[in-house]
Amino acid sequence: DEWEKEFRIRNYEAYSDVNIWANKLMTKHYSCLDNLTGISVEQNDEIIVLVGDTHGQDVSLQCVGEERTNFLEDAPYVQTAASGDIYYLKQGVNKITIRNRGQLFVMYNCDLTSKPAPIKIHIPLGSGKVSGFFDLKTHKTDAKYAELLSKATDKYFGVKGNNIIFYFHQTKMLEHVRNNILSAIELWDNIIGWEQELMGIDDVRPSQFNNHLFAISPEGSYMWASDYRIAFVYTYLGNILLYDNVMAAEDNAWGPAHEIGHIHQKAIDWAGCTESSNNLFSNFIIYKLGKYKSRGNGLVEVANARYRDKQLWYNMGDATHQGEDTEVHMRMNWQLWNYYHRCGYKTDFWQTLFKLMREEVGASYENDPGRKQLEFAKMASKAANENLTDFFEMWGFFGTVSTNISQYGDFQYTVTQPMIDEAKRFMAQYPQPKHAFQYIEDRKKSEFSTNDYRYNEVGDVGYYTQFQNNVKITKAISATISGNAVSIQNGEEAVAFEVRERSENGKILYFSNSFTFDVPASISMTNAKVFAVQADGKRVPLN
To answer: pLDDT tens-digit profile of 377-414?
Structure first.
């Protein structure tokens, strides 16, 4: 039977070692279950495995079944296990007694620079049961996918793309994508590929690092990411497997991109931003899909946090998730992307920054969030070849901190004045930026309905095209000030409006990107001066 033969006799390609590459690339572990066999086995089955020339490489079988998790203590549920029993293989004839039921995966992992040849493995008739899987590379068409899915006999059916493997409930796939899988696998291959694009790993993927992300469909929880797997609850599969459904609701792309971002964020993450630094990837995916606008609070929340509430980066905003205000934090990384990538001032900025964080900072400060925060600012300046002190000053990086912070663990968060001084000295070796891009915004009020939280937060000025086109202030801007209320006239050419002390080099007291705003009551306007900020950083006094 040709169908049986296809899955029982196969040449298995080599895949990279996920442990080595998780350390090198500062990611969570990708999956090592890249080589599906499509063969299921039962407990106590005795099977024969015939192995051809191993070319001196180690090869084994892993039998992956299910586990019961108590993540929801009041309602434990079943999901695909992260790993299973391993059976080491030798060249020639292998006889194996299966300890627990599951599907078989070939483990052939090594250094790809040695150009390892495929290994031929034959699992003969009578050894396990063929259920099959779909491989985009060899099966290619929706028609072939529909045929293979309909023949499948195991609870789970695998779909292997270039970057992702779906290992989902066969009944749910029959329900939602009985006849078409190409649009879904292409979409999620792209989403992972786009995230990898930002990480700057094109020089090693796939020539040296070629593992997949492994997506499972647990029977509880919602969606999550961990080492070796990502998960989408099986009742949600229709929303992520149908392209039209993904595009129909922003959350259907944002949520998975956020979870996959957790896999990729380690180089740019430290305690206090673990639920927001990964949203760089989410906002990038939303941009690449071309339908929705980026997320996160507007800069008004940053102004209030910094100048009204006297907060720093580590405690900015109102803690809403794992001790962090993710909606405020996520705008920082996205501002850097909008300026350097979208405006075109350094289109490899993030790729360079990821590499610098991996190669020059590495894992040295994983348990020292204050130090890693300052290293991030230093490496961002190096990646941009610009002194980004003003940018990170606005984001609260340069204030002293000594506290404990809890986010997926407890950490001592320390930033001292000598640490700040050293960081600023390092950054000062680079020239000043061409623009005051700490005020950049990629959204307009007109893009949102009035009941969208972003409508009242995105402001009136600072749209990215003002920086892209280096817009100058040519109109006679004026300001009407009544107490702490400020109203700007003819201000559309500015990118922000600052309230500063009325002295030489007066320090900033508050800012806004709206034509009308109220300076917090805690800030005296008696000796304050209002300025319109031009894209290139020139300040025009308004009173």
So the answer is: 999 999 999 999 999 999 999 999 999 999 999 999 99
Q: Say if CB 30 and CB 15 are below 8 A apart.
A: no
Distance from C-alpha of 500 to C-alpha of 528, rounded to nearest angstrom: 6
Tokens, residue 10? 């196969």
Using alpha carbons only, what angle is made at residue 349 by residues 343 and 352, rounded to the nearest 5 degrees? 165
Backbone angles phi, psi at 140, to 5 degrees: 70, -40
Within 10 A of 78 (CB to CB), how many other CB atoms are there?
Answer: 14
In 81-195, the DSSP E strands lie at 85-89, 92-97, 102-107, 119-122, 129-130, 133-135, 156-160, 164-169
CA distance 421 to 161: 49
Listed in sequence order, the residues at least 6 apart from 67 whose beta carbon sits closer than 8 Å to its beta carbon are 78, 79, 80, 81, 82
- In sequence order, what are the beta bridge partners of 69? 77
Q: Could you tell me what percentage of the chain is helix, strand and coil, using 3-state DSSP and rounding each to the nearest 5?
A: 35, 25, 40
Q: What three-state secondary structure class fits 417?
A: helix
- The token pair at 66 is 């299910």
Residues 159 and 136: their CA atoms lie apart, in Å, by 8
Which helix (H) or strand (E) is 499 found in, with range?
A: strand 496-501
Q: What DSSP assignment string belongs to 242-282?
A: SHHHHHH-HHHHHHHHHHHHHHH-GGG--TT-TTTTTHHHH
Predicted TM-score (pTM) above 0.90: yes
pLDDT 10s digits, 272-298: 999 999 999 999 999 999 989 999 999
Orientation of helix 279-289 relative to helix 182-199, angle to 10° = 130
